[in-house]
Amino acid sequence: MPHPSWNESYASGELPWDTGEPEPLLIEFVNSGGVAPGRTLEIGAGTGTNAIWLAERGFDVLGIDVSPLAVQRAIAKMDGRNLCCRFATWDFLAAPVADGPFQFVFDRACFHVFDEPEEHERFAAHVAGSLMPGGLWLSLIGSTEGPPREVGPPRRSARDVVRAIEPALEIVELRSGEFRAHDAKAWFCLSRQRMTPAQPSTRRG
Q: Going from the N-terminus, what domains does the chain have, and what CATH number goes with each?
């Protein structure tokens, strides 16, 4: 079932995460050749800004969101445009999407909304199950870096991120970035579908 607060947020217009502009970190990644156009899943697509931007550049995109109101607005943005982009209401934490596998999975500030380690691990496992061999997941996650703040994205440590993702996927890059529209630090976390299982640590003691 959809989390009622998300629909309430879209109904009230209280959407600090919805800037109406494509995410700069995603733009930089795509424009640098980090991923080629292909079958793509955006988790937590909201009103579809990033999904539509990707589709305009040749990606075949499925955008999902737990809020039916968000999905309705994303579909309305398409307005009959001839793009390989579609939207669906889906609770990704409850179940992976059946339309996979995907070459590229993207989420901007979706992974970090969950608090429990088990939820993060399940999210990562569902991503792993949605990727084709060699597929990539780019997740932009609220960071513990930067000065104290009262509002903005939830903060997750690098340790939180690695503990959840490493068993399911190979972490290719984890670096500091920024949610520029919110003046808040972020983790740029790029992971890849595993070809072999993660091996145990050789730490003693």
A: 37-193 (3.40.50.150)
